[in-house]
Each structure stands twice: as structure tokens, then as C-alpha cells.
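re the bet — no i am not wrong, look at it urself. input seq straight from the record:
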Amino acid sequence: MLNSTCTSFVTGESVCLPPVKIPFYFSLRQNLFDGIPDTYVALVAPVLAYWILSFIFYCLDISGWKWLDKYRIHESEEVKSRNLATPWQVARAILLQHATQTVVGFTGVIEPPEISIARCQSEMEALGSTLVWVVRLVLGEQTGMTFLELRGPGMTHWLYWWGIPAAQMLFASFILDTWQYFIHRLMHTNKYLYDNFHSVHHRLYVPYSFGALYNHPLEGILVDSLGAIFAARISRLSVRQTIFLFTFSSCKIVDDHGGYTFPFDPFQLMSSNNADFHDIHHQAIGIKSNFSQPFFVHWDILLGTRMTREDIQERRKKVKKT
């Protein structure tokens, strides 16, 4: 809908839009927290989320609550008996990785531009002009103009505040998944890389929450830190989008290593790349499968490296028959 100052959406070479309506999720404050730049929040929030969620899982592990047994993938004693790294060794390695990740992150986080109504209005007008060009090209001059006068302002608003940000987040997730899948797979197929780097992570035969990022330091930089920076840059995420995406990613990777398959867990429900999927990868039978992380499983499916519990049962049946 147009405001009283706009008689038409398309005005010559530009567009006329109603006053900007800020959606609930967006803040016009230059920084989300007083005195703390958003760039610092982007570096600290994923680390805090990692340890907070890990602590919650740790509390579940030591709670002794019997009702949790049906959701556990492994018995608690297996963590002590089958893992080759102690919790203290794991914690020290994670603290080192988080410190390194923060230092590397300073080189990858871009200073956010000034946040203002005027800037939002200007960017929406530029987007509206692009929309006019695309609609005219697709629908033709007459039909396109009719459509634009009816839907142009609303579509511009939706694209700016919802459509494009969501597409950026999905694209960043795809890039990060792609980066991590192929490097992760290479570290399993190349004996030198596995023996000297990735085998550190697989000292945890039975994964648990705060061991999610237990890696060789160089692997942590290459797979996690540089992958995140690359995904954010290519998809042109804003600083606040990086805060959300990588805090969410930190929570998901902890959840995927948590050792529980809760039916009400949102991280488990968003895709089949979950705790059970990753646990199979940590077992001897699945160590050359299920390379995808942290979000989806499309690369494993497309390239034939996905393994499910049903696949494991079928293999065991064939072994018994022979």
C-alpha cells in the first residue's frame, strides 16, 4: 500500500515507497548491547552458546535420571571406557580452539555500516528499482506495470526484510556444509591427513557435548574458522546475521555430539543431520560415511556416503549369512 505522498509505485527511473516499517526482529540501535560493538558479539556469542549448551548436556549426563536412558545413544560408562581422551584434555583443546577462533575471527568480521531509517529507505528504493526491471522483463511492460502498482511496495518490503535475508542464511549454510563435507571427507580418505590431524577428533569414539570441537588446532582453523568466514563473506551476511547463524551453528554441533535423541529437540528435527547421524560416523562401521556437518545431509546422499541404522543392520545380516 502506498502512502499519501506516493501517487504511484514507479516514478520515472525510481520508485516511491511508503514509510519504512521495521519488523519485530530488527533493532535500529547501532549495537545490540550498550558499549559492546556487534562485531565483538559475533565473536563471543557462539563461544558462550557452546559452553552453556554443553553445560546443560553435562548436567543431564550426571543427573542419574532414569527417564533419560531411553534417549541415550550410549551408556554413560561407555564414555569413560571407550574414549581415548580425558574430559580435561578435551576441555583444554576446546579452549585453545575458541581462543584461536576468536583471533582469526577478528580478521573476518566486517565493521557494520551505520544503522538508520534513511539507510534502510535508500536500500529499499534501490531494491525496488531492481524489482521493477525484473518484473518488466518477465511479465512485459503493461502487465508488469499493473502488477507493480498493485504488489510492488509490499513485495519490496518482503524481499528486503524477509526474502533476501532468509536466502542469504540458507546460502551461507549451503557454503559451510559444502566446505566442511569435502574437507572432512578428504581427511578420512587421505591417510596422512587422518593420522596427523583428524584422528584427534576420533579419539572420542563415543561423542559427548563439549567434545564437539575437539580437533587438532590446525583442523579447527581450516574447517571451522575459515569455513565460517568464507561462508559469511560469499553470502554477504551482515554482522547480525553472522551472530545468529554461527551461534545457532555452535548450538547445533554441540547438540549433534550430545549423545541424546530427544523427540522434542528442535535441532534434531530440522534435518536428519543429527546426533544419531553423527554417532554412526564415530563408530568403526561408519567412519567412512556421514561426513556432512553441520546442517544438512545432501552431499552424503548425492555422493553415496550416507549410512543409516538400517544400513548397519543390513550389513550385519549379510555378514551373518556369509
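see?? The chain has a mean pLDDT of 89. told u. also Residues 83 and 205 are 5 Å apart (CA to CA). so pay up
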